[in-house]
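Subject: complex prediction, re-run

Hi both,

The earlier run crashed halfway through, so I resubmitted it with identical inputs.
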Amino acid sequence: MGVPFEALLPYAVCIGMFGFSGAALSKIRAMQNGGKRARHSVDQWDRQMMDRDRRLTGFLRGQTDNVKAPAGFELSNPWRLERGYT
Amino acid sequence: MSARQPRFNQHLLIDTTPLPDSIPKVQEVGSSSAPLLSASYFIGARCKAYNDDYMQCKTEANGKGEMDCLREGRKVTRCAGSVLEDVNKSCLEEFRKHWECLDNNNQQLWQCRKWERPLNSCVFEKLNLEKKIPGAPENETPVHLRKRQIFAHSIMTQ
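This time it finished cleanly. Structure:
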């Protein structure tokens, strides 16, 4: 007596659907993060470092291991302001 | 009317006035977060004196540290730049693998011990800098030398 594969077909469909949506979501997250896995539990230190990475490389997840910063890096940290009103 | 907390998220101002010439110019460190995290313990090993000086100056300055501690800050920048330059010259491949792994893993050091061990041994041989975790208890193995990382996702990267 063989394996009753018709009974296991619904399980295969469910697993396939979950797997496909998981893979698609993971691919979308990788595309959003420059080919890397997404960052989670990002605190203020990490946000500050990612802002510094964006000032250095132009991308939020870009990394570089140059020793010297590009010209103008010292001046590119902006003052964050509020629009005034009277 | 009572004042409300300011919300500094509406406007950016980039001030391009450079520093006056009386302040010596120092090239800023150009590495981003993952290479800096990877090299941080080696920077600590070589630059401990300058870093401690700077932290003490900032603590004692009581708010005026941004202007008063520029001299100590220049020393910190130069020392960190020298460590990064040496690591780039001697151990570039291991260094790159380690920080690429860190970048993929949310900057968590315990996921990337497999690439950290060759980096540590290479830096120890060529530059004589050893990674020590400050404040670790003496009678246990330090976390980066243990065989099993209990929070790592997979066995292959431990």
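The interface with chain B takes residues 36-37, 39-41, 46, 49-50, 52-53, 56-57, 61-70, 73-76, 78-83 of chain A (CB under 8 Å).

- K.
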